[in-house]
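Example record for the data management plan.
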Amino acid sequence: MASRLSESRVDHRGEPLPRGVYALVDARGDVVSYKDRWREADENGIQRQRSKSFSPRELGSLDRARVAAINHRQGALEIVQTGDAVLRMDKAARLTVGELFKEWIALHAAHNTGERYARDSVRTWDNHIEPRLGRVKLGALAVDPGIIVRFDEDLQRSRLAISARRASLALLRSVLRWGRRRYPRTLNVDVSGLFRVPTYKRRRLFRATDPIGVERIIEAVVSRRSRDPLTPIRDAALVAAMGFTVAARPSEWLASVTWADVAERAVQLQAVQNTLGEESSVEVGLKTGARAALLLPNAYDRLMAYREALEARFGDQPDNALVFQVVSNDGPLWYDDGFPVEWSEDHYKRWTARVWRPARTVAAQAPDTEGWIAGLTFYELRHSAISTSLHSTLVMSKDGMNLHTLAAYAGHDVQTLQRYYAHVIARYRSGRPITLEVECEAARRNVEASPFKPADRQPGPQREAQRRRRARARTAAGRPETRWVGAAGSRVRHHARPASRHEGGPAGSDLR
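Corresponding structural encoding:
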């Protein structure tokens, strides 16, 4: 059990001590250490008493401890007289870099960034930063900033991919800069300036298809087999909205556009409001803020067809309902606070896997499209709309190319538009301009006049096994087998009637 210490104004030699310096004496009367006291203002301007102890175990002898206490007392008084406070390690200095990241996620990222960015940040931190810097204290970073330099060198030696290394360093820089603003007394050195985040260089130019390619993909989407007749109409409207809007991003169409924002010639990309007029505080997918985009007739007609089909089944839709809102069997879903339920990232990924990828593969087989669109991403429909606009009357005139209007529609500045679309601008600079509406409408008429039907594909073994398993389950439950018949675009679901004892053939072979 530790002995109780008392203070004495006499040192271990029996001589008096200077003011503010005390000897700590144990129960037997022996001096075991020294301590000095002073008063200083805290961060709120209130005078507080401070003290510091000096042990002979650390300094080597009682004489050295006595001298250190006296010198520290004199230095502390000089600092206090200048209006400053004696630097002491506060609680923030004991925080680790891993704990700082948790604070950054909870206090900053959760309120100022999107869900996807926060999730990617956690994965990057856990994989590349936490094993190397997670237990390092902030006080150690302030004393030895070279820790960050050695961390950067360690990433280079580990042969980490340039994209992963760039993401790791950019994330660490964001966390440290936020930590310096939150704990300026501890992180008093800009350690984020000790390394350089590698720049991202595009290795390939983007791909863009023409209006005929977009129409062929829409044709494949509409012809896709579906149990719900509303689903192909919605999918066609979504593809048309991306391919014939100059120019929107998928997140803007899926998370921010309501029916009130859709007009015959334009669409407004802005935050969603509930029935009370309150704006949503969650991530709405507006990367460059609210703006207007040009909506072509090919997209507007399909959007209105989808709204008519939606209202025919579920009744009138309010203006603040999302165009592509999550729909259940009972109708579009709403949150308790009156906001519409938007597509989740998982919902979007499943849609691209089940609808978009098969449709682009079918469209690539058409004779009037190029085979490479089998690898076209859904986001590249935005590039397709901008590329088509670059050789239209929207941009080209007798005086040259005016990119300002197109840049405003796309949510870019002119410099960004020139940098990313330089190869398209160079291709069409001296060409004859087209009219957007006329070109897109002609593409739609051509596709409707010559529909493309791909060759029938034999189902694989997995699909056949699934079909047989479902057939056995229906037979066991006494339900008729469901089969799909009809031409592309007009498929009708029929129930196979089991053959009676008086009819020949196996059960389920009659498709009447």
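Summary line stored alongside the record: Confidence is low (pLDDT under 50) at residues 484-512.
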